[in-house]
Amino acid sequence: xxxxxxxxxxxxxxxxxxxxxxxxxxxxxxxxxxxxxxxxxxxxxxxxxxxxxxxxxxxxxxxxxxxxxxxxxxxxxxxxxxxxxxxxxxxxxxxxxxxxxxxxxxxxxxxxxxxxxxxxxxxxxxxxxxxxxxx
Length: 135
Description:
The protein is of the alpha+beta class.
């Protein structure tokens, strides 16, 4: 089912999601939404996280731009119970450096962000790692 509406951006850059759309999608106060901005298409995509108990984080990893580097890091995250919800990677310098950004659910991971970062740097071969937990 589709619902189409037009809304206006306010002076602080906010939009009001109409009540009909909030009801259709089950949106409630305090829920997290993933926002993806596509600059090439001039579009914004919003995806709600329906599990309000999820421990969400943004993980940014620097890595070598070589085959298998990203798979190795993603495999480590899977092994420690981190569920990837969205990811995007880009080459910074072909054959040398790349960056990977992921939004993840860390609910089933027993490690703290510093331990995860250390594991990615030591075991995964990451050149840098940053983990920002959404509160």
